[in-house]
Fold:
Amino acid sequence: MEIKQLKQVEVVTDVVCDVCNQSTKLQFGNLSAHWGDGSKHDGQRYELQLCEKCFFYALATLKKERADKYMFDKSFDPSNLDGFGLK
Ligand SMILES: [Zn+2]
Structure:
């Protein structure tokens, strides 16, 4: 015999960007890390939820860092950065 009852369930209806504090309308990216043994930040956990604009700002910053670091390396091809981080 089935016994039915109406229950309230919490659901995520929005995620607010951790940088700009704007609604992501559930379209967001995660930046996370859990540092372990041997790292300078052993035991620390980080998790940021970013809106599309802030995510791509962070990605552009990391991409620029990579380009700056290897710009004088003869084997470095800047066109390889077009899909930086893209899977
Ligand atoms: Zn944002």
Q: What stands out?
A: The chain has a mean pLDDT of 95. Residues 17, 19-20, 22, 50-51, 53-54 surround zinc ion (CB under 6 Å). The two ends are 48 Å apart (CA to CA).
